[in-house]
Specification:
Number of helices of chain A: 17
Oligomer: heterodimer
Radius of gyration of chain A: 21 Å
CATH superfamily of chain B: Aconitase, domain 4
Distance between the termini of chain B: 34 Å
Structural class of chain B: alpha/beta
Strand content of chain A: 15-25%
Strand content of chain B: 15-25%
Shape of chain A: globular
Strand order of the largest sheet of chain A: 5-4-3-6-7
Bound molecules: iron/sulfur cluster
Chain lengths: ~475, ~200
């Protein structure tokens, strides 16, 4: 047998049909659904009189739109949001799919709920009408975002029309320096490749620095594969993966567990597999980073300065200038002198328990800078409960943070959590586009520890100063 | 789905790289449960000021481009979220074809599901079409999917590549789901096999 990459193996195991012209039908094991990208798909099914082919493998949860303030138990006030969530309630019921409604403790961001409940398993195909589906690649599952028409297609047929991507290997060798996290890895990779560098590829992350990451950290890395333009990010499953999965509500049990494990252990890229592109970064060379512009590729070590647009080339000269204008920054200013108004810790990139622990570590016994607005939004109700049990919630509230209920919140500001024009935010989410966190809002992406450090000083801060 | 065969229309130049889906349609417009009506909010934050008034400089607000049917832009067009609201808004505005040096993967896919033709060309050729588009309403550009050519207002002909299956679906206006359902026996057979091999799923 010819050597294969992990992606090749998962692809081959899910190829349901291949037409003469090379168009493939890929079978989908898990379909995750949320309220924003699904209503039109269910409407399409109803209009065509179609059913959901595998309701038992379809999981829905509202997350993008839901308020994260405690009063949400009394109902969602924004009418449009409420209509969208109610539509999901109804669709889940009518089509008989698995559902975690807004006031269920298991509710949360779809990419946090899936793994937490054991729906995401190694070697699976996972899709969701959301680009950060890439997150699930951390389990060695082929996972990617789809549009609403494709959501409808998967609901109706449990397959997706696909063409195969190319294989790209991103190796992070060695060890990470103190203060450097999974977020810094993934941002640094995008800084290296650019936001279109992964277009047409599925990336497999490997190397010692990746192997040493927890599942939470691996999810952070794969989450942002899409920011690098890749269709999906993958990390081969290992003992860390199996330990995380074991015992979760929807993970296999008993003899099935043993059978699954035996197959999962074959899921790695063969030594002599062919790669279309290889990138190697030394773990030791990665610094704590922040973004300065309006694209996730606008990444620099926190010790750097706001760049001069004229130093770029091609279309990037104008876009860098446009970014600086939007961000209200001047070339040459040290990044660590940029003052902020808001801190947001949460999202499917960094809303898991380990992220909250990292933030609490910095915030313990400290107060946030006077006048700052700071919020922590756990990724799921269960993450929230665990953080309360571990005493993290107390550290946050004593420091001056708001302690919210689970949801996407200020990652995309579809709910009331928004920046006002000109406000500047240290955020642990994944996108710093213009207006992403609210019209005119300015976003700097970073790790949870860095965001916590910024909350204490009121400016972008090198976490190593406060460690 | 609406067919795409041939289009002759005004092309609007938007020479920006990394046009993301948040720019194309900001999230406050994603709360709809319908597909239609998003055109007025296409490029909302670039098109309107804080009071909701049109920003005259923005290309689609200029008299010459208000009826544009083609958009010419920079590399990595459509990056960001998977929201199909982006192509819905583009289509609802009246644009049926986007020309750029490269597209983000999901956006590219979403275009085809909505009868929009995304055309990838080398930068030099995009620059050429961009210059033509900058001439305004008199410069009508022709896009012919069947022959895979773009003809500029000067009569210059540029060829483009496209996946044959996607071309076929666009030309015929075929519904993907219907096509796939015809393959139900293959899906049934696969499912039976997969259930035997990986019963834990
Ligand atoms: S947290 Fe942000 S990136 Fe993640 S699913 Fe929600 S909106 Fe998308």
């Amino acid at each position: 047998m010819s050597p294969k990459t992990l992606y090749d193996k998962i692809w081959d195991a899910h190829l349901a049909h291949e037409a003469e012209d090379g168009t493939c039908l890929l079978y989908i094991d898990r379909h995750l659904v949320h309220e924003v990208t699904s209503p039109q798909a269910f409407e399409g099914l109803r209009m065509a009189g179609r059913m959901v082919r595998k309701p038992e493998n379809t999981i829905a949860v509202p997350d993008h739109n839901v308020p994260t303030t405690p009063d949400r138990v009394d109902g969602i006030k924004n009418e449009e949001s409420r209509i969208q969530v109610e539509a999901l309630d109804r669709n889940a019921q009518d089509f008989g799919i698995n559902y975690y409604p807004v006031n269920d403790i298991r509710q949360g961001i779809v990419h946090i709920v899936g793994p937490e409940q054991g729906w995401t398993l190694p070697g699976m195909t996972v899709v969701c009408g959301d680009s950060h589906t890439a997150t699930h690649g951390a389990f060695g599952a082929l996972a990617h975002g789809i549009g609403t028409s494709e959501v409808e297609h998967v609901l109706a047929t449990q397959t997706l029309i696909q063409t195969k991507s190319k294989n790209m290997k991103v190796e992070i060798t060695g060890k990470l320096a103190p203060g450097v996290t999974a977020k810094d890895i993934t941002l640094s990779v995008i800084g290296e490749t650019g936001t279109a560098g992964g277009t047409g590829y599925v990336i497999e992350y490997c190397g010692e620095a990746i192997r040493s990451l927890s599942m939470e950290g691996r999810m952070t890395v794969c989450n942002m594969a899409i920011e690098g333009g890749a269709r999906a990010g993958l990390i081969a499953p290992d003992e860390t993966t199996f330990d995380y999965v074991k015992g979760r509500p929807h993970a296999p049990k008993g003899a099935q567990w043993e059978a699954a494990l035996a197959w999962w252990k074959t899921l790695y890229s063969d030594d002599d597999a062919h790669w279309d592109k290889v990138i190697t970064i030394r773990g030791e060379d990665i610094a704590p980073v922040v973004t300065w512009g309006t694209s996730p590729e606008d990444v620099l070590p926190i010790t750097g300065q706001v760049p001069d647009p004229s130093e770029f080339s091609g279309g990037k000269v104008e876009s860098a200038q446009r970014a600086l204008d939007y961000m209200g920054l001047e070339a040459g200013k040290p990044l660590s002198e940029i003052e902020i108004d808001t801190v947001f810790i949460g999202s499917c990139t960094n809303g898991r328990i380990e992220d909250l622990r990292a933030a609490a570590e910095i915030l313990k016994g400290k107060k946030i800078k006077d006048g700052l607005r700071a919020m922590i939004v756990p990724g799921s109700g269960l993450v929230r409960a665990q953080a309360e049990e571990e005493g993290l919630a107390d550290i946050f509230t004593e420091a001056g943070f708001e302690w919210r209920l689970a949801g996407c919140s200020m990652c995309l500001a579809m709910n009331p959590d928004q920046l006002r024009p000109g406000e500047r935010c240290a955020a642990t989410s994944n996108r710093n586009f213009e207006g992403r966190q609210g019209r005119g809002g300015r976003t700097h992406l970073m790790s949870p520890a860095m965001a916590a450090a910024a909350a204490v000083t009121g400016r972008l801060t090198d976490v190593r100063e406060v460690m | 789905m609406e067919k795409f065969e041939k289009l002759t229309g005004i092309a609007a130049p938007l020479p920006i790289i990394n046009v993301d889906t948040d720019m194309i349609i900001p999230k406050q417009f994603l709360k709809t449960i319908k597909r239609s009506g998003l055109g007025v909010n296409l490029f909302d934050e670039m098109r309107y000021d804080d009071d909701g008034k049109e920003i005259p400089d923005f290309v689609l607000n200029q008299p010459a481009y208000r009826d544009a049917e083609i958009l010419v832009s920079g590399e990595n067009f459509g990056c960001g979220s998977s929201r199909e609201h982006a192509p819905w808004a583009i289509k609802d505005f009246g644009i049926r074809c986007v020309i750029a040096p490269s597209f983000a993967d999901i956006f590219h896919n979403n275009c085809f599901k909505n009868g929009i033709l995304p055309i990838t060309l080398p930068q030099a050729q995009v620059d050429l079409v961009m210059r033509d588009a900058e001439k305004g309403a008199n410069a009508r550009i022709e896009v012919d999917l069947e022959s895979q050519t773009i003809t500029t207002s000067d009569g210059e002909v540029i060829g483009f590549e496209i996946d044959p299956f996607k071309k076929h679906c666009l030309l015929e206006g075929l519904d993907d789901i219907g096509l796939t359902m015809e393959k139900a026996p293959a899906i049934d057979a696969f499912e039976a096999r997969a259930e035997a091999e990986r019963p834990w799923i």
